[in-house]
């Protein structure tokens, strides 16, 4: 059974990321945060829109970066949330921090599609 992050868990991840790397605390929009966190469970006509664990993680990362719900640290929070989501569902992302930074910037600049992001996560993940 798939496990999903809650809004509260993503807020804790955000606080942790700010402790590690610095930044301005605060939520810019709780509605945008809720929308981003609930995106992986989106369905239509009783069918999930995001089928695989990688699709779901990609949708979470993408939504946090694009929705920009926090005052600061959105890209960092998005990447760490995606990694935590994968780990909760028995996958470990094995990729350099440098590559993850580029990935987050590419998402923010709309240079990578959601499908390509999902494929990236799949190609750099190992089952635990």
Automatic annotation (TrEMBL):
Q: Indicate the segments forming the Fido domain, all copies.
A: 5-123
* Gene3D superfamilies from the UniProt entry: Fic/DOC protein, Fido domain (1.20.120.1870)
PROSITE patterns in the record, alphabetically?
A: FIDO
The record's listing under SUPFAM superfamilies reads: Fic-like
Q: Provide any one GO MF term from the record.
A: kinase activity
The record's Pfam families line, in alphabetical order, gives:
Fic (PF02661)
InterPro entries found in the cross-reference section = Doc, Fido, Fido-like_dom_sf, Type_II_TA_Toxin
Q: Which PANTHER family match?
A: HOMOLOGY TO DEATH-ON-CURING PROTEIN OF PHAGE P1
NCBIfam families associated with the record: DOC_P1
* Protein's name according to its UniProt entry: Fido domain-containing protein
């Amino acid at each position: 059974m798939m496990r999903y992050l809650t809004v509260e868990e993503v807020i804790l991840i955000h606080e942790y990321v700010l402790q590690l790397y610095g930044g301005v605390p605060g939520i810019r929009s709780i509605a945008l945060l809720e929308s981003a966190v609930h995106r992986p469970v989106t369905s239509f006509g009783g069918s999930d829109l995001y089928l695989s664990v990688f699709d779901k993680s990609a949708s979470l990362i993408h939504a946090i970066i694009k929705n920009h719900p926090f005052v600061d640290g959105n890209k960092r929070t998005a990447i760490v949330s995606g990694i935590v989501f994968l780990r909760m569902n028995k996958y470990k992302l094995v990729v350099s921090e440098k590559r993850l930074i580029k990935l987050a910037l590419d998402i923010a600049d709309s240079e990578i599609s959601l499908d390509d992001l999902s494929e990236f996560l799949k190609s750099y993940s190992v089952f635990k």
